[in-house]
Amino acid sequence: MAKRAAPEVNAGSMADIAFLLLIFFLVTTTIETDSGISRRLPPIDDTIDPPEIRQKNIFIVLINKDDQLLVEEKLMDIKDLRVAAIEFLDNGGGVGEEACTYCQGAKDPNSSDNPDKAIISLQNDRATSYKMYISVQNELVAAYNELRNRESQRLYGQEYLLMEKNLADATWRGDKDKLKEQVDNLKAMYPQKLSEAEPKKTN
Amino acid sequence: MAKFNKKSGGALPQISTASLPDIVFMLLFFFMVVTVMRQNTLMIENKLPTANQLEKLEKKDLVIYIYAGKPSQRYQAQFGTEARIQLNDKFADVKDIQAFILSERETKREELIPYLTTALKVDSETNMGLISDIKQELRKIDALKINYTTREGEVSKNF
């Protein structure tokens, strides 16, 4: 029997088929965002008397229904909020037992004693827009991150966010226990104490 | 000069399209790889706000999504323009959230339940009142880990 060469398959329609698939995937693609600002809600408990907090240790941020920002009873622009929050957290005005050894702030006796005592209180109106709320949250988280970063540079010579990223990364090769200890230490130096009041309704 | 006149008579030479399939395939593979099939069809406008202090949500299967925003154009006649909550493929009320979280929890293994995160995908034009209501419901049911999903970018882009 004579061997016959296999007939060549016509590849002319290949492009069409590929185009068809391409268009399908183009249409169905949505590049999903899966990152954001993580928060922990406070559990509901019925403690009747809240712990006493001195007025100077509270940093009050109010957002009204027109998205205006009132920080410590002064009108403020969103871009100044981060600096104001850092000044408050890093003030370290306490004396004796309450002194803060690593703070670099102004040590104003009328501002916070130390970062552990400093509480940022965020209040918003029911008519505040979500984008304003997120912007304020973002700036406040940025203030904490900036301070933690400063300390991590000083103590460990590393970027704080990089340390956190490595800690979450399962493929990172290095001493995880030591890293966790360092990150926990930084978190203890500047604990995120952000309290949110339930929104008030104003007309 | 006959040497140079060889092609002057005919039309333009045909461009070879032999590499076209290759190019198309390249694009095809790119889109196949980056595609994530949407789990929910959005019935609301969902323009997320921007922020730059982001944390990435690592384990996709441990995330419960709650959407909120104005109904999209084609649902506005039916549902109005007031911001609403969407759970799975349906519009929902604030009081449906508890049942929704519970039913989502049931599909997960028991030891994973404390690690569940609720991602709030909320349109930037929504009022905080609705979000506070959602948060209040989540607190009632002890779903305390939440994540405000945002796009990456400077805060100033929000305004």
Short description:
The complex is a heterodimer of chains A (203) and B (159). Chain A is of the alpha/beta class and 203 residues long.
Topology:
The complex is a heterodimer of chains A (203) and B (159).
Chain A: H1 14-28, E1 35-40, E2 58-63, E3 69-71, E4 74-76, H2 78-89, E5 119-124, H3 130-156, H4 160-168, H5 176-189, E6 194-196
Parallel strand pairs in A: 2-5, 5-6
Antiparallel strand pairs in A: 2-3, 3-4
Helix pairs in contact in A: 2-3, 3-5, 4-5
Chain B: H1 20-34, E1 50-51, E2 55-56, E3 63-69, H2 76-79, E4 84-87, E5 90-92, H3 96-106, E6 117-122, H4 128-140, E7 145-149, E8 151-152
Parallel strand pairs in B: 1-8, 3-6, 6-7
Antiparallel strand pairs in B: 3-4, 4-5
Question: Keywords, please?
Answer:
A: alpha/beta; 5-stranded mixed sheet; B: 159 residues; alpha/beta; two-stranded parallel ribbon; 4 helices; 27% helix
